[in-house]
Amino acid sequence: MAAAQLSMEARTGRSNQRYGTQGERLVAGVVPLSSDKYYVLLIQSTRRGGWVLPKGGWETDEATAQDAAKREAWEEAGIICKITYDLGLIPERRKPDQLTAQAPKAAYHFFEGTVEKQEAQWPEMHKRARQWMTFSQATQALADRPELLDALNRCTMHR
C-alpha cells in the first residue's frame, strides 16, 4: 500500500466483508515486528480494552488477504509494514460465550510484517493505544485470545 493510497478514514461496516464456505467471517491480520525482531506492536481492543494484534475483515475489493492485513495495520495501528512471512490460516478458537453479533465466528489469516514506518497520526488513533512489547509481555497480553497467541507463536520474533 503506497503512502499516497493511505486514507485517514477507517473502513466501517460489513457490507463488503468476505465470508467462508461455513459462513465464517474472513479476517486478515498482521504480527508487526520491530526490525530487530525483539518487539511486537500490540493495539488496544476497542470492544474489551485488552491488547490485540491488528486485524480485521478481508473485503471484496481487496485482491488478497495480505492487502487486507496491511490496510488493517495502517487503520488500527498507524504502521506501514513489509510483509515477510505468511503465517497461515488459524481457525476460530474463541469460546461460544466470546462470540457476539459484533464479533461473530471468524477464520483468521495472519502475516508477519516488519514495521517500516510508524506514523504519529492514523485513522483509529483516537480510539486505540499502541504499545511495543517483548514476546513474554505479548504472550501474557494475548493470553485470553488463543487465535492471536497462535499467530504470535508462529512468528519469527526472538523469544
From TrEMBL:
Keyword Magnesium recorded: yes
SUPFAM superfamilies: Nudix
Named cofactor requirement(s): Mg(2+)
Keyword Transport attached: no
Span of domain Nudix hydrolase: 23-155
UniProt keyword annotations, A-Z: Hydrolase, Magnesium, Metal-binding
InterPro entries in alphabetical order: DDP-like_NUDIX, NUDIX_hydrolase-like_dom_sf, NUDIX_hydrolase_dom
Superkingdom per UniProt: Eukaryota
GO biological process: adenosine 5'-(hexahydrogen pentaphosphate) catabolic process; diadenosine hexaphosphate catabolic process; diadenosine pentaphosphate catabolic process; diphosphoinositol polyphosphate metabolic process
GO cellular component, one term: nucleus
GO molecular function, one term: diphosphoinositol-polyphosphate diphosphatase activity
Protein name in UniProt: NUDIX hydrolase
